Amino acid sequence: MANQLLKGKKGIIFGALNDMSIAWKVAERAHEEGAEFVLTNAPIAMRMGEINTLAEKCGNALVIPADATKIEDLENLFEKAMEHLGGPVDFVLHSIGMSPNVRKKKHYTDLKYEWYHQTLDVSAMSLHKTLATAKKMDAINDWGSVLALTYIAAQRIFPDYNDMADAKSLLESITRSFGYHYGIAKKVRVNTISQSPTVTTAGSGVKGFDEFINFSEMMSPLGNADGLACADYCISMFSDLTRYVTMQNLFHDGGFSSTGVTQPVIEKFGSIEE
Questions:
Q1: Distance of alpha carbon 242 from alpha carbon 219, whole angstroms
Q2: pTM above 0.90, yes or no
């Protein structure tokens, strides 16, 4: 149900590739809630995805290609977005992650370090670059909201998540540090949402992903949160209802992060022993 929570607000949404993407669902929900926004993704991702279809569904939203690892692309993005939207934005979604080491199945103890740098640059440093560019250009309004998507592998070991875990740890640290400085300067709040394992193009590339989703479902009292539920959470974080939430890593995982073990998991191991 739409409640016009974002009526009059303007934003930029990074990372919508196809209808499996959380960013795609955030865009649909933001449109339903009355927001205007620009869609962006790296040029190569835009060629692979269906972002123009999403733009049409969202009131013919403007699409601006941008590689978030390149300052010049980000400057062009914010400049054109502000021209199109009539001024600074109120919210930004950073939904960007990529690991060549994961794609090429390199073990964590035997990473290719050139790829490791790419993982950190694309998946984490891009947030710092985005925030730094926005701050210099005064591109986010006072009390604006910036969200980045993360995962609990930043705190706990999930072996097959590989160097993406390091990237998410860096992403969350940038959120705290930049959240402090941007909060002091402009009251802009910066947070991460640590989402349940979700079937997306990026997530499904992780080895053992299907098995882990089943395990997570059994370990979460409420079950796994799906992409649409995550989008709803993002909308609440973009709204004025959460004006004093900043520098936080917010778990949106059905209780997985606080659960040691559940009865279904105990029973499953018991049945194996039998």
A1: 28
A2: yes
